[in-house]
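The following block was generated as part of the benchmark described in Methods. Ligand: magnesium ion.
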Amino acid sequence: MIKIENLRKVYKNGNISVEALKNINLEVRDREFVSIMGPSGSGKSTLMNILGCLDRPTEGIYELDGESVQKMNDNQLAVIRNRKIGFIFQSFNLIPRINSLKNVELPMIYAGVPAKERREKAMDALDRVGLKDRMGHNPNELSGGQRQRVAIARSLVNNPSVIFADEPTGNLDTKAGSEIMGVFQQLNDEGVTIIMVTHELDIAQHTKRMIVCRDGEIIEDTPVKDRIIVNRQVEII
Ligand SMILES: Nc1ncnc2c1ncn2[C@@H]1O[C@H](COP(=O)(O)OP(=O)(O)O)[C@@H](O)[C@H]1O
Ligand SMILES: [Mg+2]
């Protein structure tokens, strides 16, 4: 699904340049559940932005579902993002004054999906994350964990090949963070490929494969041993 070879990213500001990614080689298969760890400034967000087609590498190869992404222009990248990619951010990025259902419908409004189908798909997605009974609530009437679940539902509606999450539990307390990891585990069991950045080891231990970055390089790439599984029998409130 994802293949990256000899990838470099250099940021240039005037005559100062920062080599944020040095020589990244990475393959991720369909249905994997990967965490990317590493200290602040190690290049995690840069890598996620390139993987998510929000930014382009300076050098190297990036293939997503067999398509070479590295040479695409902005419009082509936008098409790939809409068709193949779901995003989840630390700060949820929901629209404040509209309810959960409308927030989840939004990407489909942009995609031109008819109203009835939009509504059904949004309700389905909210159901998948255990939030159907909160579809009339605005973000300010929801807990942090619930807001993140709305964001996850929104990322699911266009049926993405892969979901990218940058510090999805960074604004949540331990309990809500664990709930969110439970939702990701359930979606991954259902076949969704997930790649997430975190700097917390116990969050990464919920995934199946851990990649560690330092100074713009991958220094470790290992299967997760003693994986933490969230008990989804417990009712999420
Ligand atoms: N837009 C940018 N312009 C210049 N330098 C940047 C930019 N974004 C990130 N950097 C630099 O690239 C390096 C990696 O940053 P980043 O990918 O945000 O790391 P992380 O997410 O692991 O904290 C850091 O040295 C950072 O200062
Ligand atoms: Mg970052």
